[in-house]
Amino acid sequence: MPEVDADTLNALVGKMLGDLGGAFSVPTVRIGFRLGLFAALHQHGPSNTTELAERCGLAERYVREWALAQATNGYVTHDAVEDRFSLSAEQAMVFALKDSPVYLEGAFDLAAAMLDAQPKVEAAFRSGGGVAWGESAGCLFCAVGSFFRPGYVNSIVPAWLPALDGILPRLTAGARVADIGCGVGFSTLMMAEAFPNSTFTGYDFHPPSIAQANAHAAAHGLSGRVTFKAVAAKEIADTAFDLVTMFDCLHDMGDPRGCAAHVRELLKPDGTWMLVEPAAADRAGDNIGNPVSRLYYNASTMICVPTSLAQEVGEALGAQAGEARLTALVQEAGFRRVRRAATGPFNMVLQACP
């Protein structure tokens, strides 16, 4: 065994204490979201725990311990003189404002779902098999939808679609759009609300997700212009689309190459495929030390790779495939032109044309 360096060890233990503090915060933060504690602090301003408990209909002793835990986390602000708790403007963006680009309720739900999935994924490590989407833990697909929604709200219509060559005029005039791997439908409905002259069809192989998507469409009054279908990507029979979109799902597919080739057949000759995938460097070693890649590699271990391995082919691209590998895959499927259209802190957007 190599000699232990005390400074290196202490630095590692310090890092682990920080990481474990974050892990221990997951259930208490989820309680704060679910019981309306963060929302009440944002709505009413600085409060003592008696006031906060009364507003939320909760037991004060629990609320006090919760509030002190969040203050220690740095997630709420504590005035030690007045013994009152509040949310700063920055804390509100993370914990109270649902359309903020950094609203993270879904991230904490996703962390909990990954813990629930551990026994099945652990068994898959031994067998080499997969864990099917929707079967790993509770409502994983709900958590994933919630996790991605804030980023989509702030990116799809304001930034990503405008970055595509020639697409906005077609959407404004009236285009046919397929949103493949639509999940619970957030991405599809955002586009439909922004472009009322276009028609949208969302496809996903997971029937419970499609059921939720249809419910969301009805709630938004979009059922007449938006259709959701439970069908695998390679089995989509509709054709002649002006635009095909895929948001954070190609790497989850068992046969991403077959899916890419099928997308080529779904498009009009002058159509466009917008492929949104997690941001990643092309060399795996260059992702190490990146906090975003840290999230993605862990999520990929627990969700993306098991999901792909549970399907036919089971290529298991993983959530950090990188632009070069994705571009090569798309070109092999018959797309002549592939370019990076936009880049964000969490995603890259590729435009592919036949």
Automatic annotation (TrEMBL):
Give the matching InterPro entries.
Answer: Methyltranfer_dom, SAM-binding_MTase, SAM-dependent_MTases_sf, WH-like_DNA-bd_sf, WH_DNA-bd_sf, WHD_Rv2258c
**Please, which domain of life does this record's source organism belong to?**
Bacteria
Domain named S-adenosylmethionine-dependent methyltransferase Rv2258c-like winged HTH: residues: 29-94
Q: Which CDD domains match?
A: AdoMet_MTases
UniProt keyword list: Ubiquinone
SUPFAM superfamilies recorded for this chain?
A: S-adenosyl-L-methionine-dependent methyltransferases, Winged helix' DNA-binding domain
In this protein, which residues make up the domain named Methyltransferase? 172-281
Q: What is this protein called?
A: Ubiquinone biosynthesis O-methyltransferase, mitochondrial
Species of origin: Methylobacterium frigidaeris
Supply the gene name: COQ3_5
